[in-house]
Write a structure and sequence with these properties.
It is a single chain. By secondary structure, this protein is mainly α. It is built from four helices and two strands. It has one domain. It has a two-stranded antiparallel sheet with strand order 1-2. A hairpin with an 8-residue loop joins strand 1 and strand 2. Helix 1 runs antiparallel to helix 2. This is NACHT-NTPase and P-loop NTPases N-terminal domain-containing protein.
Length: about 140
């Protein structure tokens, strides 16, 4: 029986979370809170990913699908914001011409950060509650 939710769907969300975590490597200190939230979301996604599909009822699968959708949406928003405030720079002095991420000196809009952090916190709470409910 298919619930419209697959392991591949969840793996895609986890991969996006991992990619964004790596994007924050070398980020200025002002991004610490959002970096921490990204790590928490990534870890929570990993915990829920350990639940076998066959253990979920159709109601639980639907609930998890909605949570996954929320995680995907907030991660995509964060990715777009990251792209807006960073740029790639190729250093000519390096023979291999490594590409380096340069953080633009612009500050993120406080409302952008507050909204993203709030949405990520909400998704972490939903994932943890879902995982806790199934672990009993």
């Amino acid at each position: 029986m298919s619930f419209g939710f697959s392991v591949g769907d969840f793996i895609t969300v986890i991969e996006l979370a991992a990619k964004i975590r790596k994007e924050f490597a070398g980020a200025p200190g002002q991004f610490k809170e959002i970096t921490d939230q990204t790590r928490l979301l990534y870890n929570s996604l990993g915990d829920v990913d350990t639940i076998p599909d066959w253990e979920l009822s159709s109601k639980e699968a639907d609930e998890l699908k909605e949570i996954k959708k929320g995680c995907w949406e907030v991660l995509r928003s964060l990715e777009k914001t990251l792209n807006k405030y960073t740029e790639l720079h190729s250093g000519n002095q390096d023979v291999r011409k490594k590409v380096k991420k340069i953080w633009k000196r612009l500050m993120w809009e406080p409302d952008d950060i507050r909204d993203l952090r709030s949405r990520m916190t909400e998704n972490v709470a939903l994932l943890n509650a879902f995982y806790g409910k199934l672990s009993k």
